[in-house]
TrEMBL record:
GO molecular function: dioxygenase activity
Name of protein: Alpha-ketoglutarate-dependent dioxygenase AlkB
Annotated InterPro entries: AlkB-like, AlkB-like_sf, ALKBH3, Oxoglu/Fe-dep_dioxygenase_dom
Organism: Nocardioides mangrovicus
Domain of life: Bacteria
PROSITE patterns per UniProt: FE2OG_OXY
Keywords: Dioxygenase, Oxidoreductase
Entries under Pfam families matching the protein: 2OG-FeII_Oxy_2
Length: 209
């Protein structure tokens, strides 16, 4: 119902824009110094941006070794390094807005953008922390903008059982912060429910992957 209302709102506004962050971001403390911030419906006009990204991003199907085999990574990917032009101007605006909103707490800007395209419920990402680089040893932030059909971002303390799950889609923002990448894990689990495609854009600071 909410999604439907958001869609109508988007049509009425007929424009792509970011809502306010100040006063609209809700922080949830996890444990061990980990937290997530949520700002639902941050991006208006998400349908249009979603369609543009499906079309314009050079999506890549990756393969990776697993045991004795090489298997397809179950989602499409495209990584934008620091300094790369992002595939939609609203994403540049989102990155810069996040950088200034979190400047005091993060102490550095968000510089990279990882894009993931989950075509349906078979596409997923297994439990992990973004721990390559500094996320392994230092507090940091990973900000995720979600477009399209809602999928759950599941979270659990490392090695524990699922402790939180946030349905994310249609312009929602979630920021994982504090020790989240090293003391907690996150995943987009496969689902047998009929779900449409979802795109997520993860903004990260330098040397966090
Ligand atoms: O798609 C998402 O929201 C999460 C993706 C993710 O965790 C990753 O690519 O590291
Ligand atoms: Fe991740």
């Amino acid at each position: 119902m909410l999604d439907f209302q958001a869609s109508l709102l988007d049509l009425n506004l007929d424009r792509v824009a970011l809502g306010a962050l100040r006063g609209r971001v809700e922080r949830r403390e996890l444990s061990d110094g980990a937290w997530v911030d949520l700002r639902r419906g941050w991006l208006c006009g998400a349908d249009e941006v979603f369609a543009d990204l499906v079309h314009d991003v050079p999506w890549q199907a990756e393969r990776r070794p697993m045991y004795d085999d090489v298997v397809a990574v179950p989602r499409l990917l495209c990584h934008y390094a620091a300094g790369d032009l992002l595939p939609h101007p609203i994403l540049e605006h989102a990155r810069d807005t996040l950088s200034s909103y979190y400047a005091d707490e993060l102490g550095e800007p968000f510089v990279t953008a990882g894009c993931c395209y989950y075509r349906d419920g078979h596409d997923s990402v297994a439990w992990h922390g973004d721990r390559i680089g500094r996320g392994r040893s230092a507090d940091t932030m990973v900000a995720i903008l979600s477009l399209g059909s809602p999928r759950r971002l599941s979270l659990r303390p490392v090695g524990g059982t699922t402790a939180a799950a946030y349905p994310l889609g249609h312009g929602d923002l979630i920021v994982m912060g504090g020790s989240c990448q090293r003391t907690w894990e996150h995943a987009i689990l496969k689902t047998a429910r009929p779900v449409g495609p979802r795109i997520s854009i993860q903004f990260r600071p330098r040397n966090v992957f």
